[in-house]
């Protein structure tokens, strides 16, 4: 497993690149949404039923419901889980970047109100 600092540095660069490539209206909506990085889900989340292999998580209300939620919306990317997933497929930096991008777009889709079926239809499963 690469050093944590490297995982974060590469993920941050890919997040910036991905957000910059979004259409203007989506880029504006995504700009206000913080992205944080953690190695893997916390034990408390796993006890609540989150899969320990989860790659990313959107928390808070979606874009249309923000003012009615207790927690501010944000995306969490679980970088060690992402690395382990691509490493199992003989991955490297290119595959890691690709999975960071896909996971970010998946969670951004939740923020924009898309459900799992709609995300799958868009190739963001």
Features:
single chain; 125 residues; mainly alpha; three-stranded mixed β-sheet; 6 helices; 52% helix
Describe the structure.
The protein has 125 residues and is mostly helical. It contains six helices and three strands. It has helices spanning 4-21, 24-31, 43-47, 79-87, 93-111, 116-121, and strands at residues 35-38, 56-59, 74-78. It has a three-stranded mixed β-sheet with strand order 1-3-2. α1 (4-21) crosses α5. The protein is globular. The protein starts with a helix and ends with a helix.
Structural class: mainly alpha
How far apart are the termini?
A: 24 Å
Unreliable stretches covering 5 or more consecutive residues: none
Query: H/E series, N to C?
Result: HHEHEEHHH
The side-by-side strand order for the widest beta sheet comes to 1-3-2
How big is the Rg?
Answer: 14 Å
Tally the helices. 6
Biggest β-sheet strands, sense, barrel: 3 strands, mixed
Question: Which secondary structure elements does this structure contain, and how are they paired or packed?
Answer:
Elements: H1 4-21, H2 24-31, E1 35-38, H3 43-47, E2 56-59, E3 74-78, H4 79-87, H5 93-111, H6 116-121
Parallel strand pairs: 1-3
Antiparallel strand pairs: 2-3
Task: Please outline what is shown here.
By secondary structure, the chain is mainly alpha-helical. Helix content is 52%, strand content 10%.
């Amino acid at each position: 497993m690469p050093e944590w600092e490297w995982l974060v540095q590469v993920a941050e660069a890919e997040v910036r690149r991905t957000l910059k490539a979004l259409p203007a209206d989506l880029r504006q909506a995504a700009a206000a949404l913080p992205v944080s990085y953690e190695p893997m889900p916390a034990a408390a989340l796993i006890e609540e039923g989150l899969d320990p292999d989860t790659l990313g998580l959107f928390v808070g209300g979606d874009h249309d419901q923000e003012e009615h939620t207790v927690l501010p919306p944000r995306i969490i990317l679980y970088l060690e889980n992402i690395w382990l997933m691509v490493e199992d497929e003989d991955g490297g930096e290119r595959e890691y970047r690709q999975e960071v991008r896909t996971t970010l777009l998946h969670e951004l889709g939740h923020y924009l109100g898309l459900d799992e079926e709609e995300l799958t239809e868009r190739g963001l499963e």
